[in-house]
């Protein structure tokens, strides 16, 4: 079985608090994750005008929806890069507008992620293509025709991973459709296939490697009870550590499917089938 890259989607679960960002990066690194991921937005491009003044209850008071979103964007990417380098973990982001593509590209990340919501955003896709940065793209809430069109806009040589995804937060088991990973592998043999998890546990994320996932992305949080729309679909630090352990054990236990008697079994056979060995 192939090696598996693990991505800790911090996203907006930091709530604009750099202490939380730092803590989550450290937890992801300690748990053996390969990358942490964030979301970047130019709010004037991504927040609908009719929502900007709507009141929003937050831990820091009742503020306008725009102020709430501004608070989430208040993170320092220079700090993120330096801290990730210190912990030897990679980072990249999902841009939600053209300005954010260019902002993230200025850091020359190893990847740039096309979030499910951006699959139909042609200007963003074109900007990502111009960046020439390797792409990870999710399939959530996209028809086959919409996804195919996105691949036509992008440079196919640029697409490294295609992640099976269901964009509900959290996703119920009957919506997981894990066999879809095999469909993607057959349909796009030129790309690596992965899995983006929105189920609140680690069961499906771990099991995805048995369906061929070479990248597993999970939302992470310090506490699922924290404020925020993505917290309920996230896993906590203990779950992060278990996920890496489970994936490694599943990889070890996958085997090649051949009929085999292991040397350790031969010792058992000599004990339990002693008559055969004495004859």
> How much helix is in the residues?
25-40%
Weakly predicted, low-confidence segments:
none
| End-to-end Cα distance | 41 Å
How many separate domains make up the residues? 1
How is the main sheet built?
9 strands, parallel
Assess the beta-strand content as a share of residues.
15-25%
Name the helix and strand elements from N-terminus to C-terminus, one letter apiece.
EHEHEEHHEHEHEHEHEHEEHHH
The overall pLDDT, averaged over residues, is 93
Number of strands: 11
Overall shape: it is: globular
Question: What is the name of the CATH topology?
Answer: TIM Barrel
CATH superfamily: Aldolase class I
CATH class, anyone? Alpha Beta
Gyration radius, in Å:
22 Å
CATH architectural name: Alpha-Beta Barrel
């Amino acid at each position: 079985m192939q090696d598996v890259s693990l991505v800790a989607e911090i996203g907006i679960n930091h709530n604009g608090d750099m202490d939380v960002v730092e803590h989550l990066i450290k937890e992801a690194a300690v748990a053996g994750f390969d990358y942490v991921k964030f979301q970047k937005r130019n709010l004037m491009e991504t927040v609908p005008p009719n929502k900007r003044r709507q009141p929003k209850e937050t831990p820091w008071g009742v503020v306008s929806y725009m102020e709430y979103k501004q608070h989430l964007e208040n993170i320092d990417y220079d700090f993120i890069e330096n801290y990730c380098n210190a912990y030897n973990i990679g980072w990249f982001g999902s841009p939600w507008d053209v300005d954010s593509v260019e902002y993230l590209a200025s850091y020359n990340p190893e990847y740039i992620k096309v979030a499910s919501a951006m699959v139909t955003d042609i200007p963003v896709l074109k900007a990502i293509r111009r960046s020439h940065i390797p792409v990870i793209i999710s399939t959530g809430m996209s028809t086959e025709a919409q996804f195919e069109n996105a691949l036509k806009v992008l440079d196919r040589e640029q697409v490294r991973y295609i992640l099976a995804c269901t964009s509900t937060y959290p996703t119920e088991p009957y919506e997981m459709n894990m066999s879809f990973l095999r469909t993607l592998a057959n349909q796009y043999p030129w790309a690596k296939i992965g899995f983006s998890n929105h189920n609140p546990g680690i069961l499906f994320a771990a099991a995805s490697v048995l369906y061929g996932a070479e990248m597993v992305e999970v939302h992470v949080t310090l506490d699922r009870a924290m404020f925020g729309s993505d917290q309920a679909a996230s896993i906590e630090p203990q779950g992060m550590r278990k996920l890496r352990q489970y994936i490694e054990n599943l990889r070890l236990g996958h085997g090649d499917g051949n009929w085999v008697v292991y040397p350790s079994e031969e010792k058992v056979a000599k004990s339990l089938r002693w008559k055969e060995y004495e004859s």
